[in-house]
Amino acid sequence: MVNKMLEIYLIAYNILFVLSLPLIVFAIVFNNKHRKDFFYKLSERFAVYKPLGKNSKKTTIWIHCASLGEVIAVEPILNGLQDYYVVLTTITKSGRQYAQKLQKADFVTLLPLDIYPIMNKAFNSIKPDILVLVETELWATMLYTASHKNIKAIIINGRMSEQSYKSYKRLKFFWNRFVGLISIIIARSKDDADRFSFLTNGKSNIIVSGNIKYDSNFTTGSKRDCFLLSEDDFIFTAGSTRKGEDEIIADVYNKIIPDFSKIKFFLAPRHLSRIEDVIKILEDKHIKYSLFSTGDFSNNFILIDIFGELQSIYSISNVCYVGGSIVDKGGQNPIEPAAYGKPVLFGKNMGNFKTEAESLVKAFGALIVEDSDDLAKKIREFISNKQLSEAIGKNALKTVNSQKGVASFTIEKIKENLNA
Length: 420
Description:
45% of the residues lie in helices and 16% in strands.
């Protein structure tokens, strides 16, 4: 009866998925952010693949990531799975392109639509021995198909934000049947573990490991002369800002620049589709700026308008602000600037990285800012007190180093579940 109910729920889910597709396509086509990506390798959404060229002697591990951030996060995992045939899927174009560029997976493709005939086709093509989902990638048909084919599914770096938890909780009667099919969930924190435990009704084995992002490669720092910057320049970087924060950063710049002509502001919006909106903000506030893509760094304000450069800029900065945190968007990853030994600033809304943020603040490796006035005040303090800046930066780096080792633990758990 339990399996019958699961199949009924799956059929209902698939019907709703198919019926909603026209609306989804309509929304994408008329959305500037997603329109260009819609037709990118569209056949892969229907599990139309070239022959995988799989070595029959190798065990196959299917790793699924949502987007670019998750692909970057699993890099140390991929390094430890080179003896296996690794298939890596993503939802986004940027994630797929980055994964392809890495060349650490044997086969890279977009995730097929979560409709049974298509997902079943994907499983038959890939023939995974285990399915590894990263963070919160919960797809009902995917989980059902894995279970139906006796393929163990596990989650690594399991994350469930409070906002996501509320959504899943409202539909617990549905999701607990599918999330409960996951054999093991390796969660980032106790809060994440508790939320997953509630959704699974205790059916899954749940372990708290920490965040694998602590084990990312942060040794590829850049040098200032690569960006025509001198050692005398004081560099402030605002990374992954969200709507409502760009105005704040612009206001901070206007408050500081009259007194510090050697300061450089780098602003990296979380979504590049907002670049034109940010440009308008800067022009309305009479700020002379340079676009990073032009290679012109003569102005004191540089707007980063291309992917893949934020870590490089973090590495040469004097102080970094992590976006999505003054506005209530849950915050972005504070580990990256901290790993380069930089003082980290963020707002109070760091729910998506609560454990990481609390660890940094407790170790005096990060400071919380309230608004533009507070942010400007903190930057001035760092400009005038180099010893303070260096001390907080060292604390940030020490915090990151103390949390390393999660990737090795996760790799061992993947291997254990392959042999179980």
